[in-house]
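QA checklist item 7 of 12: single-chain prediction sanity check.
[x] sequence parsed
[x] length recorded as 194
[x] structure emitted
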Amino acid sequence: MALTVPRGDLTQYPREFEREVTLKDGARVRIRPVLPEDEPRLVTLYGRLSRDTKYQRFFTVRKRLPPDWAHYFANVDYRRRMALVAERDLDWRPELIGVARYEPSDGKDTAEVAIVVQDYWQSRGLGTILLNEILRAGEANGIRRFRAYALADNHRMLALLSHQTHIMERRTAGGITTLLFSRRSASSVEKAYG
């Protein structure tokens, strides 16, 4: 798959988070850190999400991802703010099919996590892979606790977090469930895959 590393200081782009993975159905996709050039591809990905998926991820539905959001999402420092994208190879160019990210939250060692997977690619194990990879990236950058906000009826996301992480705190108010969690040890994550 073609990959253009950002111009400038190449030491900041974390190549250690690039990898190819195989989904449950045998499909191969690439996971890598987001690049500034992904900005228009994030807009395209948003346009392919169903209304329900948009609402579950952003708690609102917009006709189009606002340009300032796309710019913000595509430009991270790879430490305090990180995003990993999943892409598949098409004949003419790679296509984004999912994104996992973390942003600073309350506390120096805590970050907020969010994940979205294009509808066609859901239920194939990609969400689990993206979650575990973004948590691994967070830990590599000194983050020990993670926070997520999910609609109380987003059973898929809540089940994913319950099965793949160690939940330390969970509360629901106003239709939104807030979870504070940590990454499970590598051995327990491998057992969950096996």
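[x] summary fact logged: The longest helix spans residues 126-140.
[ ] second reviewer sign-off
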